[in-house]
Write a structure and sequence with these properties.
Cathepsin D, subunit A, domain 1, single chain, globular, three-stranded antiparallel beta sheet, about 140 residues, mainly beta, 1 helix, seven-stranded mixed beta sheet
Length: about 140
Amino acid sequence: MTLFHNGKVFRVVIQVKPPSGYHVPIVEVEMAGPTLQFQPVIGKVDTGAFRTMLNAATARLLGIDDISKNAIHSGVAKSATGHDIRYYVHPVQVRLSDATGQRFGFRLQTAFSNDIRNNLFGVDWLRHLCVAIDSSSVFFLAD
């Protein structure tokens, strides 16, 4: 598929529609934590977020019972409304797939927080792929 004015060609194009009851840019992907068991995770594609940040319920789903234990890194971020958000970073694997069965995966150092409700898939995804959004789908594009 060729996109963009410079004629860039992508080898992988995965179209993801929002889950039932949700709207773009909310998508469902698969993620695996330390158990290496992939689980469905719903989140908002938000390239304005400085990194992917997932809530504590998602951490438990991925096999991380205590987000503060064995974290690679921790820190405090500011929310869009100026509130402090304490987070703890753990490695996860992300897997994207579409209705045609095409798959693409990557590893990601992901922040987990008890201070957020909704999962955000942040700008760190752009190290692995390009994102294009229209009114009905999110497209994940990779070389």
